[in-house]
Amino acid sequence: MVQEIPGQPRGAFLLDGATGAVLLTCYDKEDGHSPLSLALSPDSRTLAVGYAPYDIILWNAQTGARQKLLKGHSNWVVSLAFSADSKRLISGAGDSTARVWDTESGKEIGRIRFPGESSYVDGVGLSPKSDIAFAVVRECWSWPGCRRRNDAFRNEDEMRSLAAQITTQNTKGKA
After folding, report:
1. Quick one: pLDDT at residue 139?
2. What is the rounded CA–CA span in Å between residue 150 and residue 160?
3. Cβ pair 158, 143 in contact under 8 A
4. What per-residue confidence (pLDDT) applies to 117?
5. What pLDDT shows up at residue 76?
6. Measured between alpha carbons, how far is 72 from 74 in angstroms, rounded to an integer?
Protein backbone atom coordinates (compact mmCIF):
# COMPACT_ATOMS: atom_id res chain seq x y z
CA MET A 1 0.00 0.00 0.00
CA VAL A 2 1.27 3.45 -0.85
CA GLN A 3 -0.22 6.93 -0.78
CA GLU A 4 1.61 8.58 -3.62
CA ILE A 5 2.90 7.58 -7.06
CA PRO A 6 4.63 10.18 -9.25
CA GLY A 7 2.33 11.41 -12.01
CA GLN A 8 -0.83 10.14 -10.27
CA PRO A 9 -3.32 12.07 -8.13
CA ARG A 10 -2.84 11.40 -4.42
CA GLY A 11 -4.77 8.31 -3.49
CA ALA A 12 -4.39 4.87 -1.96
CA PHE A 13 -2.69 2.32 -4.17
CA LEU A 14 -2.39 -1.43 -3.71
CA LEU A 15 0.75 -2.72 -5.39
CA ASP A 16 1.90 -6.18 -6.41
CA GLY A 17 4.63 -7.05 -3.91
CA ALA A 18 6.80 -8.80 -6.51
CA THR A 19 6.53 -6.45 -9.48
CA GLY A 20 5.41 -3.13 -7.98
CA ALA A 21 2.58 -2.97 -10.52
CA VAL A 22 -0.49 -1.01 -9.41
CA LEU A 23 -3.26 -3.51 -8.70
CA LEU A 24 -5.84 -1.07 -7.40
CA THR A 25 -6.31 2.69 -7.10
CA CYS A 26 -8.67 4.17 -4.51
CA TYR A 27 -9.13 7.87 -5.13
CA ASP A 28 -11.76 10.01 -3.42
CA LYS A 29 -13.29 11.68 -6.49
CA GLU A 30 -16.11 13.26 -4.46
CA ASP A 31 -13.90 15.31 -2.18
CA GLY A 32 -10.36 14.87 -3.50
CA HIS A 33 -8.84 14.99 -0.03
CA SER A 34 -5.29 13.80 0.56
CA PRO A 35 -4.76 10.43 2.22
CA LEU A 36 -2.63 10.45 5.36
CA SER A 37 -2.95 6.90 6.68
CA LEU A 38 -3.70 3.44 5.30
CA ALA A 39 -4.60 0.03 6.71
CA LEU A 40 -5.48 -3.22 4.95
CA SER A 41 -7.79 -5.54 6.86
CA PRO A 42 -6.34 -8.94 7.84
CA ASP A 43 -8.89 -10.67 5.58
CA SER A 44 -7.63 -8.44 2.69
CA ARG A 45 -11.17 -7.37 1.82
CA THR A 46 -11.15 -3.78 3.08
CA LEU A 47 -8.73 -0.91 2.69
CA ALA A 48 -9.19 1.89 5.22
CA VAL A 49 -7.85 5.33 4.25
CA GLY A 50 -7.63 8.26 6.64
CA TYR A 51 -7.78 11.69 5.06
CA ALA A 52 -7.07 15.34 5.65
CA PRO A 53 -9.18 17.02 6.85
CA TYR A 54 -11.00 14.34 8.93
CA ASP A 55 -12.73 11.50 7.14
CA ILE A 56 -12.09 7.78 6.82
CA ILE A 57 -13.22 5.87 3.76
CA LEU A 58 -13.52 2.09 3.67
CA TRP A 59 -12.80 0.72 0.19
CA ASN A 60 -13.39 -2.74 -1.24
CA ALA A 61 -9.81 -3.99 -1.65
CA GLN A 62 -10.73 -6.27 -4.57
CA THR A 63 -12.78 -3.85 -6.70
CA GLY A 64 -11.79 -0.37 -5.46
CA ALA A 65 -15.44 0.47 -4.78
CA ARG A 66 -16.13 2.94 -2.00
CA GLN A 67 -17.96 1.08 0.80
CA LYS A 68 -18.43 3.48 3.70
CA LEU A 69 -17.58 6.98 4.83
CA LEU A 70 -16.77 7.19 8.55
CA LYS A 71 -17.25 10.62 10.07
CA GLY A 72 -16.43 11.68 13.60
CA HIS A 73 -12.95 13.15 13.81
CA SER A 74 -12.41 16.89 13.68
CA ASN A 75 -8.78 16.89 12.51
CA TRP A 76 -6.44 14.86 10.26
CA VAL A 77 -6.68 11.07 10.54
CA VAL A 78 -3.06 9.96 10.89
CA SER A 79 -3.19 6.38 12.17
CA LEU A 80 -5.34 3.32 11.46
CA ALA A 81 -5.38 -0.35 12.48
CA PHE A 82 -7.84 -3.22 12.02
CA SER A 83 -8.80 -5.86 14.55
CA ALA A 84 -7.59 -9.43 13.89
CA ASP A 85 -11.07 -10.44 12.67
CA SER A 86 -11.40 -7.31 10.44
CA LYS A 87 -14.68 -6.35 12.18
CA ARG A 88 -13.30 -3.30 13.98
CA LEU A 89 -11.09 -0.40 12.98
CA ILE A 90 -9.34 2.03 15.29
CA SER A 91 -8.37 5.49 14.04
CA GLY A 92 -6.17 8.18 15.55
CA ALA A 93 -6.38 11.84 14.61
CA GLY A 94 -5.18 15.31 15.46
CA ASP A 95 -8.30 15.97 17.53
CA SER A 96 -6.85 14.20 20.60
CA THR A 97 -8.99 11.10 20.02
CA ALA A 98 -8.69 7.50 18.97
CA ARG A 99 -12.02 6.08 17.82
CA VAL A 100 -13.12 2.48 17.43
CA TRP A 101 -15.49 1.70 14.55
CA ASP A 102 -17.66 -1.26 13.64
CA THR A 103 -16.62 -1.89 10.02
CA GLU A 104 -19.94 -3.48 9.01
CA SER A 105 -22.21 -0.68 10.23
CA GLY A 106 -19.72 2.18 10.02
CA LYS A 107 -20.74 3.30 13.53
CA GLU A 108 -18.36 4.58 16.18
CA ILE A 109 -18.43 2.14 19.12
CA GLY A 110 -15.71 3.52 21.38
CA ARG A 111 -13.38 6.43 21.97
CA ILE A 112 -10.17 7.28 23.83
CA ARG A 113 -9.70 10.98 24.53
CA PHE A 114 -6.39 12.59 25.46
CA PRO A 115 -6.11 16.01 27.12
CA GLY A 116 -5.86 19.00 24.83
CA GLU A 117 -7.63 20.12 21.70
CA SER A 118 -5.17 19.09 19.01
CA SER A 119 -2.86 16.34 20.18
CA TYR A 120 -2.05 13.94 17.34
CA VAL A 121 -2.75 10.29 18.10
CA ASP A 122 0.22 8.89 16.18
CA GLY A 123 -0.28 5.19 16.86
CA VAL A 124 -3.29 2.95 17.47
CA GLY A 125 -3.96 -0.76 17.86
CA LEU A 126 -6.39 -3.37 19.07
CA SER A 127 -5.65 -6.48 21.12
CA PRO A 128 -6.04 -9.88 19.41
CA LYS A 129 -9.51 -10.32 20.97
CA SER A 130 -10.44 -6.69 20.12
CA ASP A 131 -11.35 -6.05 23.75
CA ILE A 132 -8.58 -3.53 24.45
CA ALA A 133 -7.76 -0.46 22.38
CA PHE A 134 -4.32 1.15 22.46
CA ALA A 135 -3.34 4.67 21.50
CA VAL A 136 -0.25 6.82 21.81
CA VAL A 137 0.02 10.58 21.50
CA ARG A 138 3.00 12.88 21.41
CA GLU A 139 2.36 16.48 22.26
CA CYS A 140 4.99 18.99 23.01
CA TRP A 141 3.81 22.56 22.95
CA SER A 142 1.61 22.52 26.05
CA TRP A 143 4.00 20.80 28.47
CA PRO A 144 6.46 22.65 30.71
CA GLY A 145 10.08 22.30 29.64
CA CYS A 146 9.24 21.11 26.14
CA ARG A 147 11.45 22.33 23.32
CA ARG A 148 10.50 22.58 19.64
CA ARG A 149 12.61 23.50 16.67
CA ASN A 150 11.26 24.12 13.16
CA ASP A 151 8.05 22.24 13.98
CA ALA A 152 10.05 19.02 14.39
CA PHE A 153 9.78 17.06 17.61
CA ARG A 154 13.00 16.39 19.45
CA ASN A 155 13.99 13.31 21.43
CA GLU A 156 13.11 15.02 24.69
CA ASP A 157 9.40 15.07 23.78
CA GLU A 158 7.17 13.15 26.10
CA MET A 159 5.06 10.27 24.84
CA ARG A 160 1.77 9.45 26.46
CA SER A 161 -0.06 6.21 25.88
CA LEU A 162 -3.33 4.81 27.04
CA ALA A 163 -5.07 1.45 26.87
CA ALA A 164 -8.81 1.23 27.36
CA GLN A 165 -11.13 -1.72 27.84
CA ILE A 166 -13.79 -1.90 25.12
CA THR A 167 -17.25 -2.72 26.38
CA THR A 168 -20.50 -2.81 24.49
CA GLN A 169 -23.69 -1.78 26.18
CA ASN A 170 -26.93 -3.61 25.65
CA THR A 171 -29.30 -1.07 24.14
CA LYS A 172 -32.25 -3.40 23.54
CA GLY A 173 -35.52 -1.67 24.12
CA LYS A 174 -33.94 1.78 24.32
CA ALA A 175 -34.80 4.49 21.83
Report:
1. 57
2. 22
3. yes
4. 74
5. 93
6. 7
Q: Residue type at 40?
A: L
Question: Which amino acid appears at position 45 of this protein?
Answer: R
Q: What is the pLDDT of residue 160?
A: 57
Instruction: Judge whether 21 and 14 are in contact, CB under 8 Å.
Output: no
Q: What is the pLDDT of residue 12?
A: 86
Q: Using omega within 30 degrees of 0 as the cis cutoff, is the peptide bond preceding 53 cis?
A: yes
Gap between the Cα atoms of 131 and 148, Å rounded: 36
**3-state class of 97 per DSSP?**
strand
CATH 2.130.10.10 fits 12-165, yes or no: yes
Which residues on neighbouring strands pair with residue 24, listed in sequence order? 14
What is the residue-wise DSSP string for 38-95? Answer: EEE-TTSSEEEEEEESSEEEEEETTT--EEEEEE--SS-EEEEEE-TTSSEEEEEETT
* Nearest alpha-carbon partner for 68 in 77, 76, 81, 59: 59
Q: Phi-psi category of 42—alpha, beta or left, where left has phi over 0 and alpha has psi -120 to 50?
A: alpha
Q: What residues of the chain score a pLDDT lower than 70?
A: 1-3, 138-175
Q: Is pTM beyond 0.85 here?
A: no
Number of helices (H), then strands (E), in the chain: 0, 15
Number of residues written out for the chain: 175
